[in-house]
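Q: I have two molecules that I believe assemble together. Could you output structure tokens for the complex as a whole instead of separate predictions?
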Amino acid sequence: MSPAEKRSPLFHQLVVYLLFLILLLPLLGTLVYSLSTSWSATILPSGFTFKWYVALWSDARFLAAFGRSLLVCIAALALALLLILPLLFVVNYHFPKLDGVMNVLILLPFAIPPVVSSVGLMQLFASGPLPILGTPWILIGCYFTIALPFMYRAITNNLQAINLRDLMDAAHLLGASTWRAAFMVVLPNLRKGLMVSVFLSFSFLFGEFVFANLLVGSRYETLQVYLYNMRNDSGHFTSALVISYFLFVLLMTWAANRLNKDKS
Amino acid sequence: MSYLNIRGLHKSYGATPIFTDINIEIAQGQFITLLGPSGCGKSTLLRCIAGLTAVDGGQILLGGEDLVPVAPQKRDIGMVFQSYALFPNMTVQQNVAFGLRMQKVPAAEASKRVAEVLELVELSDYADRYPQQLSGGQCQRVALARSLVTRPRLLLLDEPLSALDARIRKHLREQIRAIQRELGLTTIFVTHDQEEALVLSDRIVLMNGGQIVQSGDAETLYTAPADAFAAGFIGNYNLLDAEAASRLLGQQIGSRVAIRPEAIHFADGGIEAQIRSHSLLGNVIRYRVEARGVELLVDVLNRSAADLHHDGQSVSLAIGADAIREVA
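A: Yes, here they are, computed for all two components at once.
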């Protein structure tokens, strides 16, 4: 073996670890800052404390914002699931030709930058038959459109991996109605795509700021808007908030992975 | 009185006819093969019998009852698919038990019947496995067990062997036939493989372009093809037009002629010919020869290496008069 080949694994590992370090450094800094009593003129913090976390998690305003974020995300995802599952089933089972049209439709939310579309949404829903600007309803509807592409793609891939038509035909011939076949045969096989897309969308929506701030803002304060409004507060306090948010998303991701693995 | 009686069945997608005026009669316990090239309508016909595809007109009488208005769930027909169509989220046991669950068969009886049918397909040890842990051949046996457990009135097999490799295919087709005989189950088998059709069937229905070309037992289809298509599809017939046939045989012939390659012999004093090339098919040597400007295939039993004729060698051919079949 040549010396270059011998050295390369170490070199590659070094690159990977360095990259990880660079990515983690801001997070580590935030973590340490959120745990320190004060850290301004010294190299190391003067002392460690949990008081910022205690203050954060006993702040009624924070808990309310957390709850609102959770509610809006879950409602948007539930709406998305409720609409996408039957839609996907119909497209794939009855009208496979529509798949091309759906793919274009589903990518539309990506084509418009959030700032542009939120201005449009503000004009559209400020008055008229549906004046829901400033209410959580507009946020739920808006988040639904953001989650749509993620969920549609993930579940479509999943559907194409199973042979939907033959499975449905087999179930029908064995005496199952279309509903029973869908629930007993198709749905359990979509679990993986469902899980992945739901958790992915959730993590993304939970931290969404542009729409939340422009469409609703402080009238229905979500987590990100709360963080933004707290920007003039103690940095230790907002750091504790960022770390809490990050840990929550991490927990969700870990749970998603766990739920996915246990089947095999 | 036939058990399954298909009368004047037709189906088209828009302006494209898939099959037209199909009439088939099948006796109880028979094993029928629908044979034909891809796109001939055989699979669609099978799906229509199952009720998975609606027909445009005609009748499908099973034991006297017309199935056309009956939903597929109520037809009491078992079907095996080329893709196996096993439910990936269920074990072998759950897959096989699915039909019984739908029929609300009591659990104790269901598990007894599942065990019996798994025994029949020799998969008793695999009851707790998931489909993705099985080989293709095992999957197809599970699919077969799943369609048998509900004791259907009719078993439909849609190219069940096409996705399997050659050795497993041969073994499984014999197993399917043995089980079918044991249960006396009326079966319709769809394939594009003429060898499978010849080996398995009580009767073969040869289809082309949405119509039945010929129907009969393997012997009849092989030795007496109804037309040029049948001759070309079954066996490796030498198909000669009238002019070439007249030249080769030295007599006036008015129509196309089909000659089976194994009906031509090397014998002295016959038609002068030259070997162009040869290939060894195992027990048979297939020669490509040229005689009087006509190219022919000649199959000879591979008895010993000494008998082998070399490329370029001159030979003499004898063609029995009864082997020359005029086809439309």
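A: One point stands out. The interface with chain A takes residues 47, 50-52, 72-73, 75, 77-79, 81, 83, 85-89, 98-99, 102-103, 143, 146-147, 150 of chain B (CB under 8 Å).
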